[in-house]
C-alpha cells in the first residue's frame, strides 16, 4: 500500500496513541502520588488497563506502517 493511502489512518492512530500516552502518564503520576490503599484497588487496575490499551494501539500502528514497506 502507498503511504498516502494510509496517512489518514496513521495520523488517527498517532493521535489516539498521543492521547493515551498522556492519560497513562497522568494515571501513573496519580498512582505514585497517592499511597496505595486497599480502598483504591481500582486505580491500579485503571493504570494497567490504560497501559495495555496503549500497547495495543502502538502495535496496530507498527503493523500498518509495515504494510507500506
Automatic annotation (TrEMBL):
- What is this protein's record name? Uncharacterized protein
Native species: Lactobacillus hominis DSM 23910 = CRBIP 24.179
Q: State the organism's lineage.
A: Bacteria, Bacillati, Bacillota, Bacilli, Lactobacillales
Amino acid at each position: 500500500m502507498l503511504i498516502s493511502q494510509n496517512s489518514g489512518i496513521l495520523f488517527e492512530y498517532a493521535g489516539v496513541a498521543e492521547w493515551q500516552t498522556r492519560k497513562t502518564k497522568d494515571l501513573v503520576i496519580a498512582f505514585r502520588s497517592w499511597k496505595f490503599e486497599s480502598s483504591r484497588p481500582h486505580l491500579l487496575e485503571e493504570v494497567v488497563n490504560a497501559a495495555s490499551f496503549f500497547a495495543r494501539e502502538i502495535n496496530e500502528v507498527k503493523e500498518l506502517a509495515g504494510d507500506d514497506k
